[in-house]
Design a protein that fits this description.
Elements: E1 9-10, E2 19-20, E3 22-24, E4 27-29, E5 36-41, E6 44-53, H1 57-74, H2 79-95, H3 97-108, H4 112-132, E7 140-142, E8 148-156, E9 159-163, H5 171-182, E10 186-190, H6 196-209, E11 216-218, H7 223-232, E12 236-242, H8 245-257, E13 261-265, E14 270-274, H9 280-292, E15 302-308, H10 312-325, H11 344-360, E16 363-366, E17 370-371, E18 381-382, E19 385-388, E20 405-411, H12 414-422, E21 426-427, E22 429-433, H13 437-446, E23 451-454, E24 470-471, H14 481-487, E25 489-497
Parallel strand pairs: 9-10, 9-12, 10-11, 12-13, 14-15, 14-22, 15-20, 19-20, 22-23
Antiparallel strand pairs: 1-2, 3-4, 5-6, 7-8, 8-25, 16-19, 17-18, 21-24
Helix pairs in contact: 1-7, 2-4, 2-6, 3-4, 3-6, 4-5, 9-10
């Protein structure tokens, strides 16, 4: 049996799955509650991936206290040295990519080519943030007074709390942990209860790379029992959350009461415009990938396709034909195109929206059914689903479904398409397919979203550019790129007066 203080897991047997522990102050420890929960494979619910700690406020408090103590030393480690640890973690993640991808497919369901991409995104983020350790530049600027020097420097915030989703269970935690660490903060992270193992793998890699004890802590459990105490703790100086807009609104309100920095990355209902002059073959490939990649379980999923009437019927016919041919099953099989919903609740939500679409009068062109026979008997599987002739005001065209359900909406022209695309609560990602450079640049200007793709689907963001959206998609902060460094640091303005006399800024300005 493994030592619980040096290993995250009590090794299982053929009849007993692995038991994983919280990581607090450099040790793997059981939850104070003595309670656990199961992590099951959504493609085969007979398969228990692991047993994890059902933590409570006492565990969160212990982790935050460890992070608070560790911050006193970690903040003084030079940023380039912190970055070297992150770089080592990048190398390790690259070496472990296949093992971590297989763990992720098993606990989350998406196919192996996607989970490999998820791990690669963490590798890319680590390399990028390692570089930022030598680029935490601040402005130096001339003073308005003689013999006076003026500059601004970045300071870390302190203890940062992260609450992460299940759909990108290594990539998104890496977006939060790695910039926070390189900036000199310490962290407590609560992974989604559906996918804790992948976040464990990331944290274990950081520890193996040399992150000191207490600098990163992981506490598993459920939102009200572990997430809420993180938000309310007075020692937490920043909260980063990715999830639904409804939960994000609560987190933002709670964080504001104690003036915490708060980054919210929330929902999306992302449009892809296809104009008459588009390369239809390219647009169809993009639509298929954008709508059904990750089983539609992406905040950037292509959930609305707005097609100009000149190519509408040809496009829909081809999309439906290709959607029907997608192979749905266990993502560990390399031949599979689309995996299961993450859990029964999400599957039921997907099926409920199919019924809503029918009742609203949209035409169900294909799919809409649960798959539950043969290889699908023990998983949360659903057919790729396409609705056509959708009115843009219908609920299926307005509300985030987070499943393999796409609405195809006809439009008259470019201006009509832009209006439909923007007439939505969210504003995360957007896309347009056209060969007209004038319309492409007009779309870049007029689409009201945090991300716009030209001749590519609404998914595929890269780690060195800002990631986030507008309206109900978030509160203005960005993950990725320099935006992450901005969130995890405070600016301090510094004035050095070497005139050897009192200078009263604007008061002593010469006339």
């Amino acid at each position: 049996m493994a030592d619980t203080l040096t290993s995250p897991v009590l090794a299982g047997t053929s009849n007993r799955p692995n038991i994983y522990h919280n990581f607090i102050d450099g040790e793997w420890v059981e939850a104070s509650t003595g309670e656990t929960f199961e992590n099951r494979n959504p493609a085969d619910t007979r398969d228990v991936v692991g047993i994890f700690q059902r933590s409570a406020k006492a565990d969160v408090d212990q982790a935050i206290d460890a992070a608070r103590q560790a911050f006193l030393k970690w903040r003084l480690v030079p940023a380039p040295r912190r970055a070297e640890i992150i770089y080592t973690a990048a190398e390790m993640l690259a070496e472990r990519k296949e093992d971590y991808a297989r763990d992720m497919t098993r606990e989350m369901g998406k196919v192996l080519k996607e989970t490999r991409g998820d791990v690669q995104e963490a590798v890319d983020t680590a390399y990028y943030m390692a570089g930022e350790g030598r680029r935490m530049f601040g402005p130096t600027t001339p003073s308005e007074l003689p013999n006076k020097f003026a500059m601004a420097v970045r300071h870390p915030l302190g203890v940062c709390a992260m609450i992460t989703p299940w759909n990108f269970p290594i990539a998104i935690p890496s977006w939060k942990l790695l910039p926070a660490l390189v900036c000199g903060n310490t962290c407590v992270i609560k992974p989604a209860q559906d996918t804790p193992l992948s976040t464990f793998n990331l944290v274990r890699t950081l520890v193996d790379a040399g992150v000191p004890k207490g600098v990163v802590n992981i506490v598993t459990g459920f939102g009200s029992e572990t997430g809420a105490p993180m938000l309310e703790h007075p020692e937490v100086r920043a909260v980063s959350f990715t999830g639904s807009s409804a939960v994000g609104r609560t987190i933002g309100t709670t964080s504001a009461k104690s003036f915490k920095h708060c980054s919210l990355e929330l929902g999306g209902k992302n449009p892809m415009i296809v104009l008459d002059d588009a390369n239809l073959e390219l647009a169809l490939e993009g639509a298929l990938w954008g709508a059904f990649g990750t089983t539609g379980q992406r905040c950037t999923a292509t959930s609305r396709i707005i097609v100009q009437k000149g190519v509408y019927h040809k496009f829909v016919h081809s999309l439906v034909d290709r959607a029907r041919k997608l192979r749905v099953g266990n993502g560990l099989d390399e031949s599979i195109d689309m995996g299961p919903a993450v859990n029964e609740k999400q599957l039921q939500t997907d099926l409920e929206y199919v019924e809503i679409g029918k009742q609203e009068g949209a035409k169900l062109a294909c799919g809409g059914n649960r798959l539950e026979k043969g290889d699908h008997a023990h998983g949360w599987f659903m057919e790729p689903t396409v609705f056509m002739d959708v009115n843009p005001k219908m609920r299926i065209a307005q509300e985030e479904i987070f499943g393999p359900v796409v609405s195809v909406i006809p439009c008259e022209n470019f201006e009509d398409a832009i209006q439909i695309a923007n007439n939505i609560e969210y504003g995360l990602s957007s896309a347009i397919y056209t060969r007209d450079v004038n319309k492409a640049f007009s779309a870049m200007r007029d689409l009201y979203a945090g991300i716009t793709y030209i001749n590519a689907p609404t998914i595929g963001a890269e780690v060195h550019l800002p990631f986030g959206g507008v309206k109900a998609t978030g509160n203005g902060h960005r993950e990725g790129g320099i935006g992450a460094i901005d969130f995890y640091t405070e600016w301090k303005s510094v004035y050095v007066d070497y005139s050897d006399r009192l200078q009263r800024a604007q008061i002593d300005r010469p006339e």
